[in-house]
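Subject: mismatched residue count in predicted assembly?

I count 268 residues in my input, but I want to confirm that the predicted structure covers every chain. Input:
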Amino acid sequence: MNHNIPPTILIFDSGVGGLSVFYEIQKVLPHANYIYVFDDMGYPYGELAPDILIERVNEMLRYVVDLHRVDIVVIGCNTASTIVLPSLREFLSVPVVGVVPAIKPASLISNTAVGLIATPATVKREYTHNLIRDYLLDVPIKLLGTTELVDMAENKLKGKPVCLVSLQRVLQPLIGKIDVAVLGCTHFPLLRNEIKHVFGNEIRIIDSGEAIARRVQSLINNSYIARAKNNNRKCIAYNSAPTIEGALNITFKKMGFEAIERIPTQDV
Ligand code: DGL
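Triage response: the counts match. Full output below for your records.
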């Protein structure tokens, strides 16, 4: 990493979920440059075959790192992080940070049971079950895999209202049965207020955003942070789909992204 120029942090997700990760990272590293990469054509990853997912993420990231100097890659997607990190670390020479569902912190504060809300793929993966075995200490866990909530978060960022009745129906298996809910998909913090509304105040809701931000911050040279000034911060986005909805373009603009470029990929 060259310590005289602002670091460039690449964040990847299937869709807009990684923006919840971007939001937390840029709070602690406001002067970094950001590249946001998402795969609208492959979305939703929670229902994509693992080998196709690995191939797509590798292909898209190869494309972007060939074009830009990147200092850190963040896979802002739990579903991808469960299977894609080893292959990325084979060809990327920079640190690759993945997202892990916050099962360990949840187990420390729960008295009754933890609910893990994630994609259908994440709740099935061996990676998740190993985490549960290693970190969930004294309380039981209830798993809820849902793509409907992922779609709701996507739609919210396209300006569409969130239907609380549908949200309540999806979350129903956990209502009254847990005291801590882990948002194990990066799309879900985008619905935090609505999820809180449905669960009520007595349930604690936790996600991994702040932990990832701290991890990324720890990888950026401290002397750089102390001197950091970047009045010319660059934020660009790349997407696999030829077009995206106008309302989503506006959301990206509001978050500081000047353009959304296209990455040519194969159809799923
Ligand atoms: N945001 C993603 C995650 O954290 C994936 C959502 C999806 O595409 O199914 O798992």
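The CA atoms of residues 3 and 222 lie 9 Å apart. Marking this ticket as 'not a bug'.
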